[in-house]
Each structure stands twice: as structure tokens, then as C-alpha cells.
Amino acid sequence: MDMFLLEAVINGLLLAGVLALLALGLNLIFGVIDVVWIAYADLVMCGMYAVYWLFAEYGWPLPLAFAAAIVGVAALGLLVHLLIIAPILTSAPINQLLATGGLLYFLQSFATLLFGTDFRNIGIRLPIIEIGGIYVSYARLLAFGVALMGAIALYLFLKRSYVGTAIRAIAQDREIVGLMGVDQRRIYLVTSAIGGALAGLGACLLALQYDVHPFIGNTFGPLIFMICVLGGLGNMIGGFIAAFIISQIIAIGGYYYSTELSYVLAFMLFIVLMFIRPQGIVSR
Amino acid sequence: MLSLADVSAGYGSFRALFDVSLSVAAGETVGVIGPNGAGKTTLMRVISGLVAAVAGAITLHGRSIKGVPAHRIVAHGIAHVPENRRLFPRLSVEDNLKIGAFIPAARQHFADQLASVYELFPKLSERRSQPAGTLSGGEQQMCAIGRALMSRPKLLLMDEPSAGLAPLVVQQVFELIRRIRGQGLTVLIVEQNVQQVLDVVDRAYVLEAGSIRLAGTASELRNNDFIRRSYMGL
């Protein structure tokens, strides 16, 4: 096998890790609260700015800046639920889409106002590792490993803990969980905070690889939505698998043609698959 | 233990219960019988806080529980086995039981309580890792009762436990109710299966069109002309 193709495949695999993590967050919120956070990728943008300012401008140690960004975006997730979703929870889904869509423009404009449109980088250059003639970026490898650990931690939380079990149950019967002593509002808050924390973790991992600017959410936001829909909206395992499929198409397409064309290819495949399996590639 | 005084309730402008009064003493098994649409399910939902009472008083051990939301009622020692079982179909049997022990007081006793539920329902133990939606109707009813027992309740509300089950399975369900009451649990049970429910309860109320029409001990009601004519077809 061609070394450069193998390198593209490995890079695609590594890209998939962070995308899968973000798809998990979006799917979790949709599955539990039945709301799509259109501005999800822009919460990631906020987290990346938090990392940039705390680390590069205020000189905090990187782990501390990461922790603060995760906690900060988790708090932002809580606010999104309390201020935007909770008041319109029972209204038509289109209203919730419009409200979180509005948040997207608000966050992008607010970031532009505060930070300008400059591309900013936290200024860490992690080494490129050579393994048997294949070059892999250490930052990507690290991001992949941490994203996978984040996904496993979420899985264990949902499987083992009482609150995690309630989160899985509530999507199946919203009324009856109350009889078991589960407070729906509390579960929604916990879910929103976890969704925010996952966006914050994704932000840390992306800040290692990419410059931050107010519109960075637009570059991977649509990808995350495509992944979620392809996997079946609300289906966390489906989204996880779809992240790897989409990333491979982008990586291999980018190797044979160009990065731009590979995105076209990925979206074309998405449209075709949606005609064949509108419920998502993985059935429940 | 539980007492309702002149309770009225409904959904929006529709009134389902009119001035209902009933009481359940500790250790008793009490039935509520009546035709479809009489308000039996609404009565259960009012007690467990799923439906708000618009008038009247609901007290548990002398303290008012009217207006307490459903998610706090279970901590007062009331567990509700809802109509149609309402299991979480894609969760495993054991996860369904685990949710039943969600309240902090029940979590401490999870292992013991799980063991005693599995002892009561050995079938559930065999199928513990299977999705609850794949169980048979009778097994699902056992799982729903088990889920309610996981909160270690003092009072068990059962809404039509025999509905939609094969006659042989109905027998098993009533046998189970006998065993549960034998363990000293207080039970309030709503049923359409009048003949069989009168065999397991101490007393019963007849609910018709949202009002209590008749009340008495099981043997009184079994020999009541109106009951025999309207509910037993004798």
C-alpha cells in the first residue's frame, strides 16, 4: 500500500476522534432534550478562545487553561438551556431551531466584536512523529487519544451511574421517569452541562491543531451535523461510527483529489445515503 | 395511612374526578373497581402527583401531599406501577430495576433489594441483561412491579396490572399480588377484573363516572346485587 495513502488514512482516523466526540455531545442533547443546538460548534469556538486567552495571553499553565475552558463551556451549556431552551421547551421544534440558530449569529458577532477577525494561535508547536516512514502529528495523536478517553468516560457514566441510567431512560418515556423520583428539569440541566463540557474538551483538542477565529465553527459545524444525521440523530453509537466514515472520505478524497473536492464528495455521499437510509446508517 | 377527602381533578377543562374520598390503612390491600373511563387511572395519577388535584385534600400519614410533584412523591414511600407498564423498552431489565432505585434512600439498599426482587421474580433474573421491550407481557408486568418495589415503598399503587395479559398470566399476576401483600406492603389496586381482584383485596371502592358509588369489604361487595349484576354478569 502506498505510504502517503496510509498516512492519509491515519490522519483521517485521527480527525475522526474529535469529530466523534462533538457528535456525541450533540446527539446526547438531542436524544435527551429533543433539541438541536445549532450553535454547538460555536460553543467550541468560545472554548478555543478561552484556551487562547488564558494560556497565550494570561500565561496560565496549559492544563489549567484546558480545565477552565471545559468548565467554562459546561457553564455556557447550562446557560444555553436555562436562558434559551427551557422557556420554549414545549413550543414547536422550529422555534428551538431558530433560537439556537440565533445564538450562532450572536456568538459569532460577539466574538468578532471582542476579538476581531484575526486568526490566533496558542503558539504550541508539537512535534511530528515518524513511525516507519509515516509522519503523524503528535497534536492529532494526542487529540485522538483524549477524545477517545472522553467518549469512554461518557459511556461509563451513562452505563454505570444512576443519573446516567436516568439520562438513557428519559428519552424513552419522559413522564414515567418522574414516578421513579427523577426530576426531568435536573436531568436536562445535567445533560446540557455534559454537552457543554464535551464541546469544551473538543475546543481544547482543536486549539492544539487549529487557529481560532470567530467563524471557525462554520468550518466543522456542518460536518458535525452531517455526522449526527448520517448516524441517526440522537443515536450516539451511529454518530460515533459516522464520524469515522466521513473523516475517511475527507482524508482519502483529499489525497486523491483535493481537500475542497473531498468535502464535496463527503456531502454528496451524505445526500445519497439519506435517500437510501433516511433514518441513519445504524438502526436501533 | 393514605387518605383522600373530596378530591376533584381533571385535564384542562375536562373533569375526571368529582369529590372522591377514600382511605387506605397501613397493611391493607384496597381495590378500586369501575368501568373504562370512570377515572380510575386519574385517581392513581392524582395520588402519585402526575395529575394535580384542583380541590380536596390528600394526606399521607396525616401530612398533606397534595401539590407535591411526582418526582418527590416516591421519596414519601409511594411507588406507582403505571397503566400499560410503561417500561423503558430499550434499557435492560436490570437498568429498569436500577432506575426504580433512583432515590438516594433506595440506592443504599440497591443490592439487597435487587436480590429480593429477583427472588420474587426468578424470570427477571434470567433475563436481566435483555432489553425490557423484548419480554413477554407477563414478564413486563413483573418488571414493572419489580421496578416499583426497588424504591422500597410503604404503599404500592397498581394500575390495571392484569390488563392485556393472557388468562393464565392474569392468574399469576394475582398470585403475585397475594404474595406482595403477604410481605406486609400496603397496596391500592385499580382493576377491571372485578371477580379476581375481590379475591385479593380487603376492601374495595366502586368508581363510576368520576364518583365513588359504593364501598365495602370484599365479601360485602361480592354479595352485593348491584355488583353481581353490573360487574360479574351474574
Short overview:
The complex is a heterodimer of chains A (284) and B (234). In chain A, helix 3 packs across helix 7 and helix 5 runs antiparallel to helix 7. The longest helix of chain A has 31 residues, at 3-33.
Poorly predicted ranges of chain B: none
Cα(first) to Cα(last) distance of chain B is 35 Å
Spatial order of the strands forming the largest sheet of chain A: 1-2
Q: What form of chain B results from the Cα inertia axes?
A: globular
Per DSSP E runs of 2 or more residues, the count of β-strands of chain B stands at: 10
Keywords:
heterodimer, A: 284 residues, mainly alpha, two-stranded antiparallel ribbon, B: 234 residues, alpha/beta, 6-stranded mixed β-sheet, 4-stranded antiparallel β-sheet, 11 helices, 27% strand
Describe this structure in words.
The complex is a heterodimer of chains A (284) and B (234). Chain A has ten helices and two strands, in the order ααααββαααααα. Chain A has helices at residues 3-33, 40-57, 62-85, 93-115, 138-160, 162-170, 184-207, 216-231, 236-256, 259-276; strands spanning 128-131, 134-137. Chain A has a two-stranded antiparallel ribbon with strand order 1-2. In chain A, strand 1 and strand 2 (134-137) form a beta hairpin. The mean pLDDT of chain A is 92. With 234 residues, chain B is an alpha/beta fold. Chain B is built from eleven helices and ten strands. In chain B, the strands form two sheets. In chain B, strands 6-7-8-3-9-10 form a six-stranded mixed sheet, with helices on both faces. Chain B has a four-stranded antiparallel sheet with strand order 2-1-4-5, with helices on one face. In chain B, helix 7 (137-149) runs parallel beside helix 8. The longest helix of chain B has 16 residues, at 167-182. Chain B starts with a strand and ends with a helix. The mean pLDDT of chain B is 93. Classes of the chains: A mainly alpha (284), B alpha/beta (234). The interface between A and B is medium-sized, with 18 and 31 residues.
